[in-house]
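Tokens in:
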């Protein structure tokens, strides 16, 4: 038998302090004065910047699985991730069986930061006669307190299921069905979740014709777009309609396009549904003459529809070419979080300011009553000094697309081949005709500023929809973070892609992926990329953060060593080998933090699988927490070889579990005591002539407690446990 004791200690032992003194080194001296410095030294993480310390988010035992699709709350105190294993009290793993949007991941868990450790609990309902199967729709509210699920009721067949909302108290509220009543369940016969309001009370789904339609939907082409409003509804309502007033039934619907209605556009879905769900932007596909081109609309409060790319303008706004211009498609490019500002591209002149038929960028202001105004963003700069003005305002903009719209809609960053201003940027560079010029438009001032010239490869990268979008912006739009292969700072000698941060207030661009030595640079760096297709999901917009809300912290990864502790372009495994040659190598990835002009190492992860499952996840809004996955055991409590989620937290860290030395066999008996002194026989010491003493009465409860304590002290001395007593860990 082996007996030991595990306890969580509030401070460090003398041995730990001695270890700390020996391992602190020069890196620890930089962070002297950290309130968690002894703990950082014990972790051997004193090199971490900003008084950060590691915290193990996931439990040590995870049934041998790796977790995927992690979502981060805005405050960094909660995470949700899923996997195929069952642990932490989860009772079912059947999500993939009912066609969830999680790629077959069945069990989902919430990880919440506590005072002494991260706690784990399953978020799926336990299997019951009410819900035999469940699958999460990989979406949650920004705080992760509410999640969206597909649940199969006991009355439904295998493969069927309805949408439910899991509230903060753990209860499940039905949102609505994913397929019309009476449809037989078969592969692909159900609606697909597309997005929702932040509280998940307004939910959008699409249906294809082969999946069947709700009665009243006469769409003949591809997707129909439906919305479930607040509260339970018998059926979802069509979005792409021109009706005034709320629909009571889809049989009342006046469809704008009989061919297809799409959320946002195929080019972008950023905030295509506003945070409150009150405004939904959709594209009505060209369908003969109704409409003759893809047109952009907004459905407001489910009661009225506002035309955007073919607007009804005030008298005098269009008196020239825009009156007779051919209808051209309107392409949604993103919106503010509240839906009051939408940005779209079109080659059709919509205002007299638009003097040609090249692609231009417009801003539409949406109010409760309808279209509040239209602004030609790519008109060009005419408010500055003559030397800074666009020589041909309103002509030849040739907009390629939008890189990012700020959450408040105050800034939009876009690329155009035209010269919209001759004013130089912070590096003294100017826009050039035909180049991939990056601009920023400030809605408050109405001015357009030149940011930098991107490379042609950059343009191809951020326009590709099969990859994530390698750009990010702070909510107020002041800072833009992007990956570019061009030399945006004019330093010269920079090879390969780099990470840059642009400050719209100062007009200065700084290289983020800068090593501690002038000769060191990052090649093939990566920031946390958001998906074109999933940017309408509340959790995605708030979980894939690479920059803090104030722009002070930027996180990225690279296989190149930018700090002395990092690994430099090191191959850790060969994923595919043939005839003695490696055709697919897995590299170690260094995760870095950029703060106050300095790059610091967070950690190095070794991805031996080649699947890039061990990498940077993202940060919280404040930049306090940076989350990543790794199979390396960075803390002593990480005792498995599976991929775990870690947090490098400012002023963070928990005192570790310390295991006291155990014992086995006779060693558990303790040392032998002195030879006992035998007492003399009672008859030899008893005084004669006295009566026999009365029997001892039953001990009082107080006597029991004294006896129990004495017994406990004896057990502690000998290292034994009494028969029937409970063992386990003490906290």
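Residues out:
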């Amino acid at each position: 038998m082996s007996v030991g004791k595990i306890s969580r200690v509030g401070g460090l032992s003398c041995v730990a302090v001695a270890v700390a003194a020996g391992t602190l080194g020069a890196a620890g001296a930089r962070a002297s004065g950290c309130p968690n410095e002894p703990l950082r030294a014990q972790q051997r993480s004193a090199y971490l910047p900003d008084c950060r310390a590691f915290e193990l988010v996931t439990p040590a035992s995870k049934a041998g699985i790796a977790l995927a699709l992690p979502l981060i709350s805005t405050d960094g105190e909660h995470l949700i991730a899923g996997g195929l294993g069952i642990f932490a009290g989860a009772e079912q793993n059947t999500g993939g069986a009912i066609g969830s949007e999680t790629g077959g991941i069945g069990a989902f868990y919430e990880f919440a930061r506590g005072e002494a450790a991260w706690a784990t609990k399953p978020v799926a309902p336990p299997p019951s006669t009410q819900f035999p199967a469940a699958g999460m729709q990989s979406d949650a509210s920004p705080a992760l307190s509410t999640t969206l699920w597909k649940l199969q009721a006991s009355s439904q067949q295998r493969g069927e299921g309805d949408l439910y909302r899991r509230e903060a108290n753990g209860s499940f509220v039905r949102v609505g069905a994913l397929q019309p009543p009476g449809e037989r369940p078969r592969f692909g016969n159900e609606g697909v979740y597309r997005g929702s309001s932040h509280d998940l009370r307004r939910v959008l789904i699409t249906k294809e014709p082969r999946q069947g339609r709700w009665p009243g939907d006469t769409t003949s082409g591809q997707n129909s777009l439906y919305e479930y409003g607040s509260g339970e509804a018998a059926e979802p309502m069509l979005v792409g309609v021109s009706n005034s007033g709320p629909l009571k039934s889809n049989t009342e619907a006046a469809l704008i396009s009989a061919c297809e209605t799409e959320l946002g556009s195929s080019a972008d879905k950023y905030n295509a549904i506003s945070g409150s769900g009150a405004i939904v932007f959709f594209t009505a596909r060209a369908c003969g003459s109704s409409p003759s081109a893809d047109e952009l609309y907004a459905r407001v409060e489910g009661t009225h529809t506002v035309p955007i790319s073919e607007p009804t303008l005030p008298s005098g706004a269009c008196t020239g070419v825009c009156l007779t211009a051919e209808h051209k498609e309107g392409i949604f490019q993103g919106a503010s979080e509240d839906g009051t500002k939408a940005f779209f591209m079109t080659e059709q002149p919509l205002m007299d300011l638009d003097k040609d038929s090249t692609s231009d960028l417009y801003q539409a202001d949406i109010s409760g009553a309808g279209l509040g105004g239209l602004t030609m963003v790519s008109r060009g700069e005419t408010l500055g000094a003559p030397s800074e003005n666009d020589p041909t305002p309103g002509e030849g903009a040739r907009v390629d697309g939008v890189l990012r719209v700020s959450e408040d809609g105050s800034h939009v960053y876009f690329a155009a081949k035209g010269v919209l201003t001759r004013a130089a940027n912070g590096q003294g560079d100017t826009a050039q005709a035909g180049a991939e010029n990056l601009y920023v438009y400030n809605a408050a001032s109405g001015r357009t500023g030149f940011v930098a010239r991107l490379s042609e490869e950059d343009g191809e990268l951020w326009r590709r929809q099969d990859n994530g979008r390698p750009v990010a912006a702070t909510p107020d739009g002041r800072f833009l973070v992007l990956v570019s292969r061009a030399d945006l700072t004019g330093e010269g000698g920079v090879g390969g892609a780099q990470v840059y941060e642009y400050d719209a207030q100062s007009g200065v661009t700084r290289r983020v992926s800068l090593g501690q030595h002038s000769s060191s640079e990052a090649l093939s760096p990566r920031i946390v990329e958001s998906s074109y297709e999933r940017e309408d999901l509340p959790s995605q917009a708030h979980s894939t953060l690479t920059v803090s809300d104030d722009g002070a912290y930027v996180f990225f990864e690279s296989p190149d060593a930018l700090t002395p502790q990092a690994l430099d372009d090191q191959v850790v495994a060969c994923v595919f080998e043939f005839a003695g040659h490696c055709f697919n190598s897995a590299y170690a990835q260094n995760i870095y933090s950029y703060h106050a002009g300095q790059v610091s190492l967070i950690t190095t992860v070794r991805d031996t699988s080649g699947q890039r499952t061990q990498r940077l996840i993202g940060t919280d809004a404040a930049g306090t927490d940076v989350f990543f996955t790794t199979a390396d055991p960075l803390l002593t409590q990480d005792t498995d070889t599976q991929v775990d989620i870690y947090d490098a937290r400012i002023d963070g860290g928990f005192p570790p579990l310390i295991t006291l030395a155990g014992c086995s066999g006779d060693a558990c008996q303790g040392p032998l005591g002195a030879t006992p002194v035998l007492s003399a026989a009672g008859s030899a010491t008893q005084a004669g002539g006295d009566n026999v003493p009365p029997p001892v009465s039953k001990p009082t409860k107080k006597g029991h407690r004294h006896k129990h304590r004495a017994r406990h002290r004896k057990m502690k001395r000998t290292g034994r446990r009494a028969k029937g007593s409970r063992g386990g860990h003490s906290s």
